[in-house]
Design a protein that fits this description.
382 residues, alpha/beta, Aspartate Aminotransferase, domain 1, Aspartate Aminotransferase, domain 2, 2 domains, three-stranded antiparallel beta sheet, 11 helices, binds pyridoxal-5'-phosphate
Amino acid sequence: MIYLDNAATSYPKPQEVYDRVYSFMKETCANPGRSSHEMARKSAECVNNTREGLAALFNIDDPMRIGFTPNATYALNMAIQGVLRKGDHVVTTAMEHNSVLRPLYELKKNGIISYTIVKPKNRFGEIDAYAISKAVGINTRLIVLTASSNVTGTIMPYAEVGEIARKRGVYYLLDASQGAGVLPIDVKKMNITMLAFPGHKGLLGPQGTGGLYVDERVPLRSIIQGGTGSRSFETIHPSFMPDILESGTLNTPGIAGLGAAVDFILKTGTKAILEKKEQLTKLLYERLSGHKKIRLYSTCEDHKNSGIIAFIIEGMDSSEIAGILDSKYHIAVRPGFHCAPLAHRELRTEKSGLVRISIGYFNTPDEIQYAADSIIEIADNA
Ligand SMILES: Cc1ncc(COP(=O)(O)O)c(C=O)c1O
């Protein structure tokens, strides 16, 4: 199978990740932060090593400002529901995932917040930072932006938006689901007050991992209360990081594997990872562009694409194309709407959906050539 569904979850992982998960589960698998025996201490050390790796990657001064979550959706909910209060206004975009949109819809439905949704300026889903700036009003408390589109791969002006948030005194939540481990993300330079990330996509860690960084100036409330191993006699859930986010037993084997993945990324460098993905993306783009039946929704302009080519073949549904790629050519891609309904509405693809090819660091030029040949063959026969 040729795996081109890395925006959903990355595969394969670096060998070190498999090794670390196995050795952790075999040798150390105790509950961190709950007891003081040697195995628990080793578990806690392993979790904190992963925190330190992530802090180095995102230029976070204090690793304890990162809390682990099961995925990006939990991190986004903890940030959105944890920071917004009655009367707040939020600025976000039509390119966001349902894990941003649905918590906002829910808060609006309950009469708590209002929001403005900024629309993209072209069919690649590009968002204009100026349009975000214009949408910020007097009661805006939060801007939420995806680092890059999970539909088209278009990289958003997330550093510029950080500057806007800083100047306007607004909290800034970056959804780094399509960017962490690939794009340069520096919370200090980019004024990112909250950073939500999955561990299992570009960070190359196991599924069931993710996290949220919260700047010390953000007065977050917990949305899930429970055992943390700290202050057990207090009736109120701890308000300090990371315990505020880490109720219950952590996915410690997953976090151990994520630590190995982050070490791999730090060693390889996001610059080299992005460059490789850009080369493969360009290769695919160039092979597919120009075919009269293939319509592309991704750009391959330099530094504008995080590694996705979205397309449709005239007269076909995206599920049909993905089905043929799977059954006849053994290529894994994702059709449909990618949990991003507003993006598809804006791109006018809400009927057919799009086929999303998402390239990973371990894909090869031969695999990309084969995928391009296969798509062209399907289009020729359409
Ligand atoms: C932009 C974006 N945000 C959020 C998510 C949710 O990530 P997770 O599945 O880790 O909860 C995804 C997943 O595809 C995504 O692409």
